[in-house]
Amino acid sequence: MEPHFPALSEIKSAFPKADLSAKKEKYASVITSLVTEFNQRFQDFSVIEKQIKLFSTPFLVDAEEVEESLQLELIEMQCDDSLKSQHQLLSLPDFYQSLDHAKFPLMRRHAKRMMSLFGSTYICEQTFSLLNQNKSRLRSRMTDSHLCEVLRVSTTKLSPDIPFVNPLEFFQFSFKQEKI
Question: Which residues does the UniProt record annotate as the domain HAT C-terminal dimerisation (predicted)?
Answer without folding.
Answer: 95-150
